[in-house]
Write a structure and sequence with these properties.
Strands 3-2-1-4-5-6-9 form a seven-stranded parallel β-sheet, sandwiched between helices. The chain has a two-stranded parallel sheet with strand order 7-11. A two-stranded antiparallel ribbon has the order 8-10. It has a domain of about 170 residues: NAD(P)-binding Rossmann-like Domain (Rossmann fold). The protein has about 290 residues and is of the alpha/beta class. Strand 5, helix 4 and strand 6 form a beta-alpha-beta unit. Bound molecules: NADP nicotinamide-adenine-dinucleotide phosphate. The site of NADP nicotinamide-adenine-dinucleotide phosphate has 26 residues, from helix 1.
Length: about 290
């Protein structure tokens, strides 16, 4: 049974990818800077891993032929961290890398994830590039979740819509890409329809039984909130560019890739809220 190295295995997407690979009968080597974050099983083995510590890379890649590659989020220095790792993967005998990029990355050659995409494409490895839209799970455990706890979603999205996608769908596509050896494919991954943040707030309100509203804020207001949380200026700028794309309507497109690859329609936002309403209800009680 083949073992796949999953980077970012403790994160929202990485965890879902581990689950999807197990369903496809792969074994997983799950990389994290803190291995206690990984649940050890007979088919999931944690490995200590940090892009910034090259001394850990060889052990992570030992006897590995396929890698799910995730960049640290909002990291403008991601290319200088991931590109040497891709080069090392070439040397250690990796054959296939599935790289998780982001929707619209390919429309900006300076986008850090696009720089990594190009490096991978020219690496000689078999590659698959997934470009997902914003994750639904940001509302649950990401940076938007505390806003829900506080009663209002405050992002600079204006009235524009986003075709949010669940990490479960991205993970199922990723697992199929490994199993079916979908080499050389590049695809945008989205939910089946686009929703505004106002729509999302209303659906979460309905699910958790208390009012959650959407307050459109300016980019500068978001930057101030991020600065108060100690976020690096480069990450603040990174997030601002993502929301510029949202406001321009570039994140509203939908594709049929999830259904085409997995044979199932993407998770609907209502299904996501129904499934997770308990978590938001706990927030209410806290
Ligand atoms: N969230 C979205 O809406 C969205 C949309 C499109 C694309 N993406 C992209 O999808 C990827 C995953 O996002 P996510 O929301 O799942 O992120 P997340 O939940 O914040 O998890 C990030 C992961 O990155 C790992 N990581 C951070 N710094 C690292 C380093 N120096 N070396 C090795 N691993 C490191 C963390 O692992 P440890 O801390 O355990 O080491 C963690 O598992 C990111 O590249 C993001 O840009 C996200």
């Amino acid at each position: 049974m083949e073992t796949i190295l999953v980077t970012g295995a403790s994160g929202k997407l990485g965890k879902a990818v581990v689950e999807a690979l197990l369903e496809k009968d792969f074994n997983v080597r799950a990389a994290s800077r803190k291995t206690s974050r990984i649940k050890w099983t007979d088919r999931v083995r944690p490995v200590l891993f940090d892009y910034e510590d090259p001394g850990l890379h060889r052990a992570a890649l030992d006897n590995i032929h396929a890698v799910f590659l995730i960049a640290p989020p909002l990291d403008s220095k991601a290319p200088e961290k991931l590109m040497p790792f891709i080069d090392k993967a070439v040397k250690t005998g990796v054959r296939h890398v599935v790289f998780n990029s982001v929707m619209t990355a390919d429309s900006d050659e300076k986008n850090p994830l696009r720089i990594i995409e190009r490096h991978l494409i020219h690496s000689g490895l078999d590659y698959t590039i997934l470009r997902p839209n914003f994750f639904m799970e940001n509302f649950l455990s990401g940076w938007i979740a505390p806003m829900i706890e506080a009663g209002s979603i405050r992002v600079p999205a204006g009235g524009a819509a986003t075709s949010f996608i669940s990490v479960e769908d991205i993970a199922r596509v990723a697992a199929a890409c490994f199993q079916e050896r979908r080499y050389g494919e590049e695809c945008d991954l989205t939910g089946s329809r686009a929703l505004t943040y106002g729509d999302a707030a209303r659906m979460i309100s309905d699910a958790c039984g208390r009012p959650i509203d959407y307050v459109p804020i300016t980019e500068e207001e978001m930057a101030q909130l991020d600065r108060q949380k100690g976020m690096a200026e480069s990450s603040i700028g990174y997030r601002a560019r993502l929301f510029e794309a949202v406001r321009r309507g570039h994140m509203a497109d939908t594709t049929s890739v999830v259904r085409d690859v997995t044979g199932k329609p993407p998770v609907l936002f209502e299904e996501f809220t129904r499934k997770n309403c308990y978590a938001w209800k706990i927030h209410k009680a806290a």
